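Protein Record: Sequence and Backbone Structure Tokens
======================================================
Scope: a single protein chain, as residues and as a discrete description of its fold.
Tokens: labelled as protein backbone structure tokens, with as many entries as the chain has residues.
Position: the record begins directly beneath this header, with no further notes in between.
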Amino acid sequence: MNADESLMVRARVHAALGDPARLAIVDTLTLGDASPGEVGAALGMPTNLVAHHLKVLQEAGLVVRTRSEGDRRRTYLRLIPETLAVIAAPPLDPPARVVFVCTHNSARSQLAAALWQRRSPIPAASAGTQPAKRVHPRAVRVARAHGLHLDPSRTAHVSDVVRGDDLVIAVCDNAHEHLPASVRPRLHWSVPDPAPADTDAAFEAAYRDIADRIDRLAPSLPSGADHD
């Protein structure tokens, strides 16, 4: 890309973010994914206006849509990290703990909790809405390749793990859609399920996706000790 093309791309992004409503949508999506309906509900914005602003954000390369692996009628919006490199995440109150949740607590949530423990002083845990009996062997193998340890026999149900002062992060669409509305605060990361592909490459891709998101969230989430 030459200098003139780069300027055009940057100008398009700045123009897209120059509208307060679009900037509010970006703030909503900075730390987690959401459906268009969830964005509208969070911002009190009518459907037709959400659709208009999302079109501008997509054309600027700021937002991409993915279809839910749970309810295929749903789509989720996610920000493109490369485009958002200079955008700071909105501040969050420091939680006592971060709990990562997926359906079976056998791969994505396990990898996320283990990686979080390495990147942040805030304690982490993981759970599932329908926990499997064991952690997926490929998840254990990918974790080991990155110097992380997963206990193959340790899975847990959300109701046995989540507390009122936790920040809950759903790392799969099904978990996000089935968590009780009372579980707050929470974020949603639409990380594709590596289990259907059942390859080391798919599990490695999930790990990388989670690692990128943790790298963005951890610096914006100070521990309680930082406020003493």
Remarks:
- The mean pLDDT is 90.
- Residues 107 and 139 are 5 Å apart (CA to CA).
- The two ends are 47 Å apart (CA to CA).
- The first helix runs from residue 3 to 17.
